[in-house]
Design brief:
Length: 148
């Protein structure tokens, strides 16, 4: 599954905001070429909310273990919550393994999982988890709105 197919699938979620920073835009150069997924039915990036999913295409400072500087390589990161994360991850996965779930190299203990280059083994589950993460983000936004 390629990056664009994942982005297109997420764009089909109700109330989603997909940010895909490009050269010359308002976002930092480091983020160019990546994708960030938010629940934002008003179409504006939430000010105090992290994305529930991302696609990263390059190494970031302090996050080089996935070897994302390899051309064409990308990593999908999804916040699933700790209870869901542990059963998903492959116990023997190496940080550069493709098409396997593993804990996010920096945020795994916070319930984030990742997959480098999702393919036959993981692509359906990646899309299902992104939908679940979207619905969880919607529920959090609804609770915040009710508290007012």
């Amino acid at each position: 599954m390629n990056m664009q197919k994942i982005i297109d699938a997420v764009r089909g979620f109700d109330g989603v905001l997909v940010i895909t920073p490009q050269a010359g835009g308002p976002y930092p150069e480091l983020s160019w070429g990546d994708a960030y997924f938010y629940y934002a039915p008003d179409g504006r990036m939430p000010e105090r909310t992290q994305p529930y999913g991302t696609i990263i295409t390059k190494n970031y400072p302090d996050d080089e273990s996935s070897a994302l500087d390899t051309p064409g390589r990308f990593r999908v990161n999804i916040h699933v919550g700790q209870g869901k994360a542990d059963p998903l991850v492959a116990a023997d996965a190496q940080p550069t393994d493709v098409d396997v779930f593993q804990p996010h190299p920096l945020y795994g203990t916070a319930g984030w999982v990742c997959v480098i280059d999702p393919a036959a083994r993981t692509s359906d589950t990646v899309l299902a988890l992104l939908r679940d993460a979207h619905e969880s983000a919607r529920a959090r936004a609804d609770r915040r709105a009710r508290r007012g």
